[in-house]
Amino acid sequence: MTQPVRTAPTLAEVAAAAGVSRSTASRALNDSPRISEETKKRVRAAAKKVNFVPNARGRALAVGRTEIIAVLVTEPLSELFSDPTYSEFLSGITEELSESSYLSVILQASSTHERNRAREHFERRSFDAVIDVSPYKGSELLEVLRELGVPTVLCGQLEGHPYRDVFSTVYSDDEEGGHFAALAMKKRGRKDIVAVLGPQDNPAVVDRLRGYRAVLGEDLPDANVIYTGWNSGDGYQAIHQILAREMAFDGVLCGSDRIAAGVITALNEAGLSVPADVSVVGFDDHEIATRCVPALTTVRQPLREEGHMAANIALDMIKGAEPTTSVMHMQLIQRDSL
Amino acid sequence: MTQPVRTAPTLAEVAAAAGVSRSTASRALNDSPRISEETKKRVRAAAKKVNFVPNARGRALAVGRTEIIAVLVTEPLSELFSDPTYSEFLSGITEELSESSYLSVILQASSTHERNRAREHFERRSFDAVIDVSPYKGSELLEVLRELGVPTVLCGQLEGHPYRDVFSTVYSDDEEGGHFAALAMKKRGRKDIVAVLGPQDNPAVVDRLRGYRAVLGEDLPDANVIYTGWNSGDGYQAIHQILAREMAFDGVLCGSDRIAAGVITALNEAGLSVPADVSVVGFDDHEIATRCVPALTTVRQPLREEGHMAANIALDMIKGAEPTTSVMHMQLIQRDSL
DNA sequence: ATTAACGGTGCAACCGGTTGTACAACCGCG
DNA sequence: CGCGGTTGTACAACCGGTTGCACCGTTAAT
After folding, report:
1. A49-88 burial, b if ≥16 CB within 10 A, otherwise e?
2. Whole-number CA gyration radius for chain A
3. Are B72 and B133 a contacting pair, CB within 8 Å?
4. CB within 8 A of B322, min separation 6: which ones?
């Protein structure tokens, strides 16, 4: 049996069926004010009848848009998928785009080969816009995008804002998040605070710490600031380190919920009750936060909303909007660990 | 400051710079045998000089291909990302496509809205081919794809093979995997086997069980077959269930490595040694397999290779190849739990 | 010397839409 | 009755490539 590859109906066939010209058919389907209601109705009926759907390729060439947005990621796919932070952010982007007719393509850029490939696609004008999920200063690809004039949204603050006047930026206000967490500690009357942050060179970590300090001052001494990785094991170790010093503390600010989970485990093992003896506050509002015992008070980073915002800004820029910078607000999620 | 949106050079400019016609320029860049070496060299030099890169939209329209392949997934993005099985398969696809100039788009189809959107894109001919990661019988989208004649690759066997003559299929031979696991048990001299599978309605589960039975016969009695979920907790519970029956057993065949991890924990808690008292074999060769104590003997499903294969078949079908069915082979990974 | 064969190139059509502009039909007006 | 102004439609160009076919000049065969 031969395949029933019904070749798709073109605008010309619709026009013929409706007894009008191609241009009139096009305008009628695009609801141009220059076409009479009568004709529009006839053309629409004809289109329905022959099952017409405008061909993406033809349309793309005519209007100069592919209706595709690239999401540029530096991480390899496996890491990208295993990190729930990314997955929620990406969901936000696709969710928002699904309201429009736009599609998103995940474009990896971890190896040189991948970066060259990405560059090639940029030069071909395969995409109407690019959302860079983890931009870094001095990236050659950003340079290319700038030269090509491709609308670009950076997710995350670049120190020195080297592209501020060309690209849009979306980021969460980490300093504000630090404020919220620290204020909660203060309100609860905690006076001897320990901070178990992530890696020292991470800009988010720096901003959060600034937020903590602005509120707590002397209640968070330098000696109590510990830089680690993001995992529960890191939190666990950090607490052991603190306990070994045999100094009193009544609150722990954590750089991630996973760190906090490890912190709580270590405290419990040491016979310290949370929150009776020690208060713990996390960061991220990761799924794990609700599964901690006690459930973790944490700072929510609006990742999904950030994705929405990034997508919307990209769409606006495609329509010609100027680059903007958009700061998302953190939120304290009150649970039982404080 | 105005943006430096250098408008991209077109073929016409290259042709002018090389002193030839547009058609000759096109043929020269596409290495047509009808053009002399001399001319090709001149055109290539001109192209390099003006930084010419063929425009994706124009090309797509002319050649009738978008150079985009859609990966259709039924799961919501969050699940997709959290399941390492998918992530490896998807990596395989993008890895293979990155050798070509093709891009892949992840197209979700869990809600009705998403399915309508997918359908619309299919009708617009936005994609040259579709890879359906989790096809199910009676899917309306498959029906649409068949009608439209879009090259499609199904990942997983559909019972009754309703589309065999139209779509290609790639799947791992689960029955063979069952064979391998069971044979290993037999070789080790295990006679009283328990099977802790996944959900009863899962086709992979059915096939694996068939493989087990063909080898073990009476050594795997019906009463010893337990259907559960895929997680470690399920394996843990299943063993407790078996232990409660107070019947002897010396081997456990597991439907996933996560199940096996739970099984091993339960056995150890019950004072049974693995592999001295009881042998355990998993399935998937998940990362967790190497972290079990003892390290888990398991059946490896070549997910990455399956992704490669799916991508290649899709590319071949785009070039006009007939639909094929491709079966990937399982492999027993010997570790210490047997 | 005439012609067939052939390699190399350009013209023009085409892919499937959108859009600037010309034009025809109709209106009301002086 | 002829005019300008509206309204609705069609013609044709255009987006940026690819490709069938005609045509040119050259060489070899008759």
Report:
1. eeebbbbbbbbbbeeebbbbbbbbbbbebeebbeebebbb
2. 26
3. yes
4. none
In this prediction the pTM is 0.89
Contact between chains at B80 and A78 (C-beta distance less than 8 A): no
Band of residue B2 on the pLDDT scale cut at 50, 70, 90: very low
Closest CA to A74 of A122, A142, A10: A142
Q: CB under 7 Å from any atom of strand D: which residues?
A: A 19-24, 27, 34-36, 38-39, 61-62, 64; B 8, 10-12, 22-23, 26-27, 29-30, 52, 54-55, 57-59, 61-63
Residues of A in contact with B120 (CB under 8 A): 53, 101
| Of B143, B159, B181, nearest in space to B259 by CA | B181
Please confirm whether the linkage preceding B203 is cis (ω < 30° from 0).
no
Residues of B in contact with A123 (CB under 8 A): 8, 53
Q: Is B8's CB within 8 Å of A123's CB?
A: yes
- Please tell me whether any atom of strand C lies within 7 Å of the Cβ of A8: yes
Whether chain A has a CB inside 8 Å of the CB on B168: the answer is: no
At A281, is the secondary structure helix, strand, or coil?
A: strand
Nucleotides on strand D lying under 7 Å from protein C-beta:
7-12, 14-20
DSSP string, A156-224: SPPTT-TTTTTSEEEEE-HHHHHHHHHHHHHHTT--SEEEEES-TT-HHHHHHHHHHHHHHGGGS-GGG
**CA atoms of A181 and A51, how far apart (whole Å):** 57
What is the tens place of the pLDDT at every residue in A148-198?
999 999 998 888 888 989 999 999 999 999 999 999 999 999 999 999 999
- Give the model confidence (pLDDT) of B188-235 as tens digits: 999 999 999 999 988 889 999 999 999 999 999 999 999 999 888 999
- CA-nearest of B248, B185, B256, B235 to B214 is B185
Based on its alpha-carbon atoms, the radius of gyration of chain B, rounded to whole angstroms, reads 26
How many CB atoms are located within 10 Å of the residue A5 CB?
A: 11
Would you say the C-beta of A22 is within 7 Å of strand C? Answer: yes
User: Could you tell me if B321 lies within 8 Å of chain A, comparing CB atoms?
Assistant: no
Kindly state the helix (H) or strand (E) to which residue B187 belongs, with its residue range: helix B174-187
Give the residue carrying structure tokens 């590319």: B315
* Cis peptide preceding A275, ω within 30 of 0: yes
Q: Find how far residue B247's CA is from the centre of its chain.
A: 39
Q: Which residue of chain B is at minimal alpha-carbon distance from A81?
A: B81
Contacts of residue A331, Cβ cutoff 8 Å, sequence gap at least 6: A180, A299, A300, A302
CA distance linking residue B230 with residue B55, whole number of Å? 47
- Protein CA at A37 to nucleotide C1' at D6, angstroms: 17
Give the type of residue at A261.
A
CB of B182 within 8 A of CB of B333? no
> What 3-state class would DSSP assign to A45?
helix
